[in-house]
Amino acid sequence: MTTTAITTLDQLLAYAHVLEQEAVERYQELAEQMQVHHQPQLAELFQTMARVEGQHVDRVEALADGRTLPRLAPWDYRWADLESPERVPIGAEQYGMQPRQALELVLAGEERAQAFFAAVAASCPDPVARTLAAELAEEEQQHAALLQDWLRRYPSATEDAPDLDEPRAQD
């Protein structure tokens, strides 16, 4: 299934639920990583974003209440890439990742999620699903705009930035 093959509200809700849950996990992981790397403001932003994405999970669950959603195994989801749009690509996170790099990763995820929902809104034959997909696309666009504002606070990543947590051999 590609985004153009989502034809029902139930299918959209199943996809949206997984996508939003993965966004919560991603933001929680990055919040922890930024805390370890002495970036408390960015850690707080990512914690806030995890809570916002959690509210999206709650909304999708409320919309799905009483419905029988398709049960798909992880490999049955047909995303444009191997993973859901909000996932950070495997190998993209790294030890010592600078704040700007983390922001760029989550911004790209929000943009992919926005494009996913916009594609569903443009192609789904179910008018209720189209309307919900458009709303979800708008929410993802708002997240992207917030992250773009935060990007302006951080200079471009450099290769020679000091590692404040440089590993040391135990004495």
Q: Can you give a write-up of this model?
A:
The chain has helices at about 10-35, 40-65, 100-125, 125-150. It is mainly α. The protein has a single domain, classed as Up-down Bundle (Ferritin). The model has no long low-confidence stretch (mean pLDDT about 85).
Derived structural class: mainly alpha
- Please state roughly what percent of the residues sit in beta strands, choosing from under 5%, 5-15%, 15-25%, 25-35%, 35-45% or over 45%: under 5%
| End-to-end CA span | 55 Å
Sketch the topology as an H/E string, one letter per element. Answer: HHHH
Shape: elongated
Helix amount, in percent? 55-70%
Q: What's the β-strand tally?
A: 0
Q: What is the tally of helical segments?
A: 4
Calculate the mean pLDDT score and round it.
85
CATH architecture classification: Up-down Bundle
CATH fold assignment: Ferritin
User: Quick one: biggest sheet?
Assistant: none
